[in-house]
Write a structure and sequence with these properties.
Blueprint (H helix, E strand, L loop, with lengths): L2 E4 L13 E7 L2 H9 L4 E5 L12 H7 L4 E4 L9 H7 L2 E4 L1 H5 L8 H10 L19 E7 L5 E7 L13 E7 L17 E5 L12 H7 L3 E5 L9 H7 L2 E4 L1 H5 L8 H12 L1
Parallel strand pairs: 1-2, 2-3, 3-4, 7-8, 8-9, 9-10
Antiparallel strand pairs: 4-5, 6-7, 10-11
Length: about 280
């Protein structure tokens, strides 16, 4: 079977079914669901600093239920969003039961774990087995109260990949990590939004978990992250509801973003400032 090294699970193609994949994405349930839908035979992802309620590796259990071996790379050993770095430098932090059966263990080099998965007899999950809507990433509107009465909507997307060109000028709260996928500046955000919020994925080695922020700053876009321990990565509504700001670029700081501030409070301030 073939191997795939991808900056994001969203880069899977229909013809990739049956491949063993190593991706720069976090190990949350949405990543796992996308891997199952894409028909991978095994998955190595990033643990994203583990985070609130172990959201950064929660997908490993879902993959286990579907009979797929999976493991996560330690955020302190390799950059999130950078699959090549994960393959070259990554160390495994967590493994599901199927992965352990392939003789993959915590502390093992990601490259060795990847080779063991490829040598296994693992097969893709049964086609057509539905995971349900709760495992699908989505777009949501958040109603934010205005000081003068009424409300204004803020966009929430579970994955930054769901941002559309039509979202230009919007305030966007995402469930995505703040790393720069593939190290490509164009991947920071797909539209010239007013403000974009991410999860810092524990920040990790080379401050990779906040790598989008300086790129967004250069484009004049306010960018900030919430602490991984304050919100579930992969879930935009969790980012908004419980997120606490950990890092902000200059445009975001000019709007009042600062470490320790509730994201919900900051968004309300920003919406009213914009109005």
């Amino acid at each position: 079977m073939n191997q795939l090294v991808l900056g994001s699970i969203t880069h899977l193609k229909p013809g990739d079914r049956g491949c063993h994949a190593l991706v720069g994405s976090h190990g949350g349930v949405y990543t796992a669901a996308a891997a199952i839908d894409g028909g991978v035979a095994s998955l190595i992802c990033h643990d994203a600093g583990i985070g609130l309620e172990s959201a950064g590796i929660k997908g490993l259990s879902l993959l286990e239920e579907m009979g797929l071996p999976a493991a996560a790379v330690d955020f302190r050993s390799a950059r999130i969003g950078d699959a090549a770095h994960m393959l070259a430098r990554g160390l495994i932090s967590h493994v599901n039961g199927r992965g352990i059966a392939c003789e993959v263990t915590p502390g093992m080099a990601a490259a060795e774990a990847f080779a063991k998965f490829q040598a296994s007899q693992s097969l893709p999950a049964t086609p057509g087995k539905s995971l349900g809507a709760s495992y699908r990433e989505g777009r949501h509107d958040i109603a934010v109260a205005l000081d003068g009465g009424g409300q204004s909507n803020v966009l929430a997307v579970d994955s930054a990949s769901l941002i559309l060109p039509a979202d230009a000028g919007a305030i966007v709260v995402t469930g995505s990590h703040g790393g720069l996928p593939g190290g490509v500046a164009a991947n920071a955000v797909k539209a010239p939004v007013r403000c974009a919020v991410f999860n810092d994925a524990g920040v990790g080695i080379d401050a990779a978990g906040i790598g989008r922020l300086p790129v967004l700053e250069a484009r004049g876009i306010a960018g900030l992250t919430v602490a991984a321990q304050s919100a579930r990565i992969g879930e935009a509504l969790s980012t908004y509801e419980t997120g606490v700001i950990s890092h902000a670029n200059r445009p975001a700081r000019e709007f009042g973003a600062e470490a320790g501030r509730s994201l919900r409070d900051f968004v309300r301030h920003l919406v009213n400032h914009s109005i």
